[in-house]
Amino acid sequence: MFSFDLSSISTALLHPGRQASGVDFSGKSLKLNTEDDAKPIVDAINACPDLQYLTLTGNTLGIPAAKAIAKALENHPELKSARFSDMFTGRMKTEIPPALAALGDGMIQAGARLSELDLSDNAFGPIGVEGLAKLLQSEVCSELQELRLNNNGLGITGGKLLAKALSASPKKLKVFIAGRNRLENDGAKALAVVFQNMGTLEEIAMPQNGIYHVGISALSDAFQVNPRLTCLNLNDNTIGPKGAAAIARALPKLKQLKSINFGDCLLKSAGAIALAKGLKDSSMPLQSLDLSHNEIGKDACMEVVDAISSSPDSKDRLTRVTLAGNSLGGAANKKVMKDKLGAAAELSDDEGSDDEDEFAHAVESNVGEFLLKPTIQNLEKLGSDGAVLIDTHLQAIKKPENLIQAYVEATCCVSGLSDQSPVAAVVARQLYPLMVQRASLQWLLTNELLKALQLIKIEEAYFPAPIRETLKFFISTKLPVLEADVKSVVEGYRNLYT
User: Fold this and answer.
1) Residue 212 class from Cβ within 10 Å (0-12 exposed, 13-18 middle, 19+ buried)?
2) Which of 26, 38, 131, 393 is disulfide-compatible with 57, CB 3.0–4.6 A?
3) Predicted structure pTM score
């Protein structure tokens, strides 16, 4: 069962005289529990004389099956690419580390030298990194160029464990992908130290990690000693003006940077202006820039446009410039931007008047200010329609897990002010039914509420049965005294209290 995929083309280009070969079981949805279940994969590995890649994406692997596959790998020192993403669906967390360790031991025994390791979309959390540590520290990963750990639920603890494993021996990574892991500041700072010692990175993608300016600043210092960076994606972290200033200082040293994605990073106008200066002072061959949904005013947006369109070849070079979701001004302003950016411009669809744009931006800024600094004064700026404005603001978030987290955080912020402010009490009562209505994943809503109440740790992706029962008891006992509109919504989701 051999196959030829796109990565084979890359390998063929790197080694013109050698045809890439390997085993690909991706997307088969196989449930591999026992050694017998793994036999088709084992047979394919044994029958492949030159196993340059093994792809098991989209199946689910138990410990006995992993050990059987690992045994087959012991005879293949030529293995270069291990693509093990989305490989543990439905498995208990305790099953994953020994399965990963077994696969690693097979490659270690073989004396393989991986260039690519992909373990994305395996929610193994910090304990999964423990299963990977031996492999990452071994000679198998001494020549590793691409490490993909997207959506693994690492949390701060996992980020630190990963950094420790990568620091054990020198690494020369070119690609590091670790989005949607809740690394936060401490996890980012630990990895920044690792990046400082590499100097070879060409692509870094760490979106949706809850990193604030402290972690961003540490990463920015590391970017400066990785001058070959071509792609940088920090989408949906809270870079803010301070983080933007730190990144701006690094930009002049990144002379090969082609793609920047800082969408949904709360840059605000001050952050955009700082970035504009950094972009203007650099000579990078920028092709793609995403600063969408950052609460940037029209003047600051124009500064960004001026900075990236100043060179004579900008229209030919730029392929995509996304500023949608910011205050761009009226039709005349947008026309100027489009004229300067050419076909690359991706602006908002709203071609309304300057006054309408300014009003909308003022409202968005007030909501953003409250969510960033939830004080009574900032809440009262929203007036009697506070719940509606917050609801409208949050609905711009597209990913369900991020949307639910944002609603829980906003609702808890308002609720915390209820004892001190009648306005907060009213807004809180209005927000609770909206929060439940917007939550498409009820189990995740429950999980986020438990995190907000500090009943479970932030990096945990589950909650113990006793806490679940406590929450149900709490909701069921409070149900009779809830406001009628809140009660009617909660009663539509019986799994929360029965």
Assistant:
1) middle
2) 26
3) 0.70
